[in-house]
Amino acid sequence: MKPGRVVASFDSATGMLRALSRFLHGRDVPLIGQGPAAAEPWAVALSGAANRLPRALKERAYAASGWAEAVPLRRVGGIRSGELARWVTGHYPRRRSDVAFVGSANGALMHLCAALGAPWLPQTLLIPVRRHGVHPDEPRADLRRTQEAGRALLAANPDLVLHQMHDANQDRLMIAGMSYFRVKWRRLPAAYRHHLEQTLAPGATLVVADCALRWPVTRVGPRHVYQHGAPGGATPEEYRHGGPRVAAYLRRYGSPHRRWDYPEADGESPEAEWGFEPELLADLRELAARNGWRLARMSFAEPERLSPVVADLYREWYRRRGLPADRLLAECFLLLEPWWTLRSGSVPYWMVFNSEPSRASLDAYLDAAGPFEEIRLLLFSHGVESVGLATIGQWRETLARATKLGVFTGVDTRAYPRDFAGLARAHRELARIRATVPMPLPMRWEAAEKILTDRDELRWDVEEPTGAPGRSERPEPERP
């Protein structure tokens, strides 16, 4: 199976990989979060037409688009991790850099990489697995139906760990016909080793992006866990035990259930989408020592902890270049555009999702950073009025904090959260920003590292090329 047909195009890691790699090739992203084929005029027209469908048909069309990408159960055992790794590295140009990143997916990290002209190799990819006959509110049935496929995948790929994720809140439409197999490399694949050795010179820095977020799971096998829900609007306790918000949500969608019957959690694990699996560190240490690189472990407690750090780094970078730093671009999930961020002179602030906690994190940043003249907001539409979804009215309150211009970008407020044409519309509206600035030369890693290591949100552990571990002056990040 071709890796491009195995990995989900609608996933955060894939969208971020495409956005960053296209930036490093000197290109923007015609359809944000999607591949080049999806940017063809017919695809854009179809997404616009889908917005005009009745609600039920619109939801079915959205679910069908994901189902069409999913791997049939019988073919999961034919997936090979080495081919997936070669597919990842094939996105990037072959050129030297004084820094590269490996590890957790993170939208703010993509903007850091763009500023530095550096590649990022994801530890985690999403493989959507097609299956039938499972109600989205019955996670036990999902595990029973797919457990054999999970065993086949792991037997064929001893270098992977499987984090099977079932989020009946935010992924309701997609999981009606598929299961989410998130795989993490626990051993460094050969394609990653080769790419890094072609990219980094002796004395360069290899940075491990280490998101420390953990989540309740059920242990299925030695390298297989089943994750109950995901970060966003609902809490781990609501996924496990239900509550008034969950019951109201399920009633709204006509479910026969009033809570989710997940397999009993028996521990915690690195979060499936965002968390870093530390078993990979041994291979990274060996590779860095052999090539004379510094190995830096940049740890943060949860994904959005990196967002204010990178936003402030951009503001400082703009000021040093004599540019204003009063235009904010707030991005959401896989809706991010490094090329137009820099071309428009915008400060990027990335949010995990369109939920109330993410809106609160953006508001907290605005409280700390002071006013911005312009605020533009991208919102990802997942098709569901999920528990904890921030409403358009709430987002308008955030936009009202701009002193001159606060606008939705690419968002049809009447269709949200079923605004499936927003992927194309967002790019079109970003490209229409009138005041633009020249694309800068990459920021020097030494300057960026100094800014980053001064931030309390991050912990740094550095091992120099001699192999002697550096000492971090930052405390261990708070674990959620």
Total count of helical runs of at least 4 residues: 17
Shape: globular
Domains, number = 2
Structural classification: alpha/beta
Strand content: 15-25%
Got a strand count? Answer: 16
The helical percent reads 25-40%
From the alpha carbons, calculate the radius of gyration and give it in angstroms. Answer: 21 Å
Low-confidence stretches: 35-44, 467-480
Sheet with most strands: strand arrangement: 1-4-6-5-9-8-10
Overall mean pLDDT stands at: 92
Give the termini distance in whole angstroms: 38 Å
For the largest beta-sheet, the strand count, sense and barrel status come to: 7 strands, mixed
Describe this structure in words.
About 35% of the residues lie in helices and about 20% in strands. It is of the alpha/beta class. The chain folds into 2 domains: about 5-300, no CATH class; about 305-430, Rossmann fold. A 7-stranded mixed β-sheet has the order 1-4-6-5-9-8-10. Strands 3-2-7-11-16 form a 5-stranded mixed β-sheet, with helices on both faces. Helix 15 links the parallel strand 14 and strand 15. The radius of gyration is 21 Å and the shape is globular.
